[in-house]
Amino acid sequence: PPSLNDQIELVKSDDLMVKQIGIDFCCNQISTLTKECNILGFHFSTLNLENSLLAILTRSGLLRTFNDPSDLSSLPSKFSASNTNSTLPVGGESATWDEYPNSRWGDARSPAFFNESIYGQSSFINTDQLLQWGFPKSLDDINTLFSKYISGDIPSLPWTSDNINSSNSDFVISVLNYLPKVGIWPMASQLAVDGAQSSDPEFGWGPANGYVYQRSFIEFFAIEPVALKILEHLKNNTKQDFSYYASKLNFDTNEPSILSNAVVNNASFDPSINSHLLEIESTALSWGVFPSSPVIQSALIDKLNFGYWSKEAIQLWRVWASQIGSFSKESKQFIDSVADSVYLINIVANDYKTPEKLFCFLREEF
């Protein structure tokens, strides 16, 4: 509803306030449906997030508390479950679920993290988008497509509809515009921030009177010769100025193979493995310090979340190819060939006090 949207717009950078508005709205809905429509039962989807749902159940009166076990005898049931222990704690100290997943930049070990086909673009591409992106038949055509996206001539790509230039400096924007000319195809970037106030209109987020920080990073595609050159430069950087993650499809397993200088050997993005038990090196991308609160990490990258995303990102080349085939078989064949050799690379600058260092490195080396 427009009224709800207006409320959220005013506090959209403060997760706690957004959550409170949602709780209030949901409780009002329950009250209206109960009183006016005589509806007594409600279905909730938790999305593995506990505390907000617990607050709604408690405030709305849907969660009844029985102090005396004999109270339960007044509840009719067709089934006998008297021998079942149903006194497991709800909420309070047991509420340890994450409150907010942060898209693909969240902790992949969290129960709230969706590991596939949630954080990327839709697997369906409409005709208007296909016509907008054209029918590439060469690497130069792909270079031109990404140049148009970065300059704002087109609003989206098969992998993203975010504005890559938001909150970037003029120098960083100039580097982003340059990179497609040398076969580096950026999709996302971020400029470092060192202690901006949480109320800052450009970089701020979270509760009032806090300070926020973030590292510079860039994420891009590159075909194999370009990718190998980039990785060689990164491996020769002995000062550990940058953390990197690189992925390429392994034809034997149909899974991405990950190269990185920032992970431990036993990290895995295999959904069959209980990732909660793994020790995973994570690189913080954004974090904040707020009154009466521990440090809050709002975005990170590690082998797990990068592995999930890289699999989907490479698959989206195939999706694009399959849907462009009805317009141009030559374009389909070309895009499929790119998917066979393309790398997805994410580079993070570890020193958040030198915001443009990463982009200077890319401009100087290429």
From TrEMBL:
GO terms for cellular component: cytosol. One of its GO terms (biological process) is tetrahydrofolate interconversion. Gene3D superfamilies: 3.20.20.220. SUPFAM superfamilies: FAD-linked oxidoreductase (SSF51730). InterPro entries: FAD-linked_oxidoreductase-like (IPR029041), Mehydrof_redctse-like (IPR003171), MTHFR_C (IPR053806). Residues 95-360 form the MTHFR SAM-binding regulatory domain. Keywords: FAD, Flavoprotein, Oxidoreductase. The keyword Flavoprotein applies. GO terms for molecular function: FAD binding; methylenetetrahydrofolate reductase [NAD(P)H] activity. The keyword Transmembrane helix does not apply. Its cofactor is FAD. Pathway: One-carbon metabolism; tetrahydrofolate interconversion. Belongs to the methylenetetrahydrofolate reductase family. This is Methylenetetrahydrofolate reductase 2. It comes from Smittium culicis.
